[in-house]
């Protein structure tokens, strides 16, 4: 069984979808599935990259010229798709959405002749937080619906997201709920040099709050900053990630007089991220709307046995993950007062932090590890190909 995955990017590009693909592909290989991936090259000035000869996991990286409204711009993608199909000879395509380049599968004859599985990571959420995205979705939706109409199966990451998705409503009979998973062995233990850098960032803080994610419109980092202003003692919040909202967040930190208690770290490599994970007291995911569909960072918190405080977004999988794992507290989205109260609760109760972290580690072993996820996905492939 040979399956070609179409995604946005692939590591070393850092992102939830990308890290999941990096875990899923090797895990599918252990299930007897021969896999390859076509993604966009994360280096915009390159002419793309072909797979390394003899690679067990061939990765095609089509040239990309930046992004427009969060979507990669890659006019050459259809040619790379045709080439990948010709060289890899897949039995099935696995399309990870949202991804505008996946629409080229509608126009490439070799792709149209194959059965498709769509991995629905998130709706394109029309939101007043980003009006340009809402307008663009009017053009995106007809192509999205055409992809869904042609697909044989749709993988959705949580029951609440499926229930709330208007885009998936006409296709519910072909939807399968399979949560995202994590390979804990991919996430390395901290290195000594990185430990020293993390210690310098935390300083003398007696309560260490970590947030990880791109500084973009739906992540709610401003809510965490306002909540931190409500905390007493020597608490400190570190926010790791780059993005277009950085300047606005820096101005907010300045205006609230929090320069010694909140730091924007920018992009962090894996070694530094893993050390921040191991040294924090709690992960905070204060996202605002359903653009935060699942939260891979919630699985990474399980890897390090850390409790979480998460926005319980209606129609999102974030609250569902926390309820299934039992590893954190839920708060209403966009409510810095309630978020501050939850932070104070865990600040004052180290035993509760330990108990929640232990529950998360157990949930990763039993339910959210990449092994069971890959086994379920491979089983879906086999059923579809047998039917075809």
TrEMBL record:
GO terms for molecular function: glycosyltransferase activity. Keywords: Transferase. Residues 15-181 form the Glycosyltransferase subfamily 4-like N-terminal domain. SUPFAM superfamilies: UDP-Glycosyltransferase/glycogen phosphorylase (SSF53756). One of its GO terms (biological process) is carbohydrate derivative metabolic process. The keyword Transferase applies. Residues 200-360 form the Glycosyl transferase family domain. Pfam families: Glyco_trans_4_4, Glycos_transf_1. This is Glycosyl transferase group 1. The lineage of its organism: Bacteria, Pseudomonadati, Pseudomonadota, Gammaproteobacteria, Candidatus Competibacteraceae.
